[in-house]
Amino acid sequence: MLVQRKYLLGLAWMTAIFIIPLPFIQTLNAGLSPIYIGERIPILYGTIAYSWMLLAIYIGTKPKWLDRLIGLPSAYMLHGILSLAAITLAFLHKESVWSSGLIKLTGDWSFDIFIGLSIYSLVFFSGWLTSRVLFLLWIKSQLEHIFKHELSVWLHRLNIVATTLVFIHVLLIPYIRQIKSFMAVFLITTLFVFTTYVISLLPRGRKAKVLTNTQMTPNIHQLQLLTREKLLFSPGDYIFLSFPKISGLKEPHPFSVVNIPNNKNEIVLAIRGDGDFTRMVSGVKQLDLALINGGFGQYQTVINDQKPNRLLLIAGGIGIIPLLSLIDGNASIPINVLYSSHNKENLLYPEKFSEWNNRANFEYTMQVGRFNDDQVLSVLGKNKKNLLVLIGGPTIMGRYWIKKLKKFGLRGSQIYYEEFSW
After folding, report:
1. Torsion angles phi and psi, residue 131, rounded to 5
2. Looking at the domain 299-417, which fold is it?
3. What whole-number distance in Å separates Cα of residue 53 and Cα of residue 47?
4. Domain boundaries, the chain
5. Could you confirm whether domain 206-296 is CATH 2.40.30.10?
6. 301: which strand partners?
7. For the segment 52-66, what is each residue's pLDDT rounded down to a tens digit?
8. 349-354 own/partner pairs: CB under 8 Å, 24+ apart
9. 335-341 and 310-316: which strand pairing?
10. H-helix or E-strand spanning residue 208
11. Can you tell me the distance from the alpha carbon of 80 to that of 362, in angstroms, rounded to the nearest whole number?
């Protein structure tokens, strides 16, 4: 399945880069007057940029079908890179095509907004980048108390304002309006994306109420939620959680689910107070109304398609959370767990491990401090065929073990890590 997933991810990139812009390019190129043939290439740059920006907006609505196809982390990576590529093409378009009046103003305003948002997003929404560039991570940590989660989300929505300005910019150009086939593609795709986006802003998901909010460690709270509706998510999934009546918690935030669905329709979350949203969750009270959207994630999908005869779960700190429900939901598969944390108090749910230890096909090692290579090698054993390794934890840890496991002889298709850094 992991080989298939790479194929699907590659297909998604090919579709985004080449297929999505194709109707725009063909219709515009076919109908463009010979008078503007000298500006054809930069005009096409602007057209491609617009198609990519529409796709980036659509990905931002978190379509579930796309999550199950390539995973939201990969989709959000596509979203970010497409946005930056669109801005680059927009710059080439802006510098090469002459315009004046309101046409020029709408183009310039939209470009300025996009530039400002791209800089902001590189710090606050690009975990894949800040996890690699420590200076950006430091800037983010310094500014997070000012640009809180809800404010950041609303600032990011200025992309819609900028895209609307581009839409007006195009409508104001007479020789573009005359190309009926292009205008049909332009209007239909814009209407579809904007309608999808507006729908995504409406309160959606299952209503739930808070049953308990328990402090597990000084910085981790367990939230128990109850919903009347049937829960449609798999072991290892995460949900988007919001509290529509609590200021600062109205915008959805992703959290992995501790438990697997049960007849009681209960959801258990373990939330570490890293940001303003997660810290505010500690103040949520019993019977407070919540909205749940999900599930999202690919851990169980990987297991179902890979059909391994043995699982190795490597977890660090709060990264154990999505793996807990996988242990519960895959009792028939032999499982080894290597679970570490920086301190003893953050080794979560030890009672679950004691219970699972009664299984004949379950083994675990729980320790303070990271595992060394020899410890992991000893668990891997000599027979690595049909072994699947699932990793949960900090980005640096996940990347480290992916690299090491490949050196130990595992294929890339035997390793899956759902990077939670977006």
Report:
1. -70, -15
2. Rossmann fold (3.40.50)
3. 10
4. 2-201, 206-296, 299-417
5. yes
6. none
7. 999 999 999 999 899
8. 349/258, 349/270, 349/320, 349/324, 352/324, 352/327
9. parallel
10. strand 206-217
11. 40
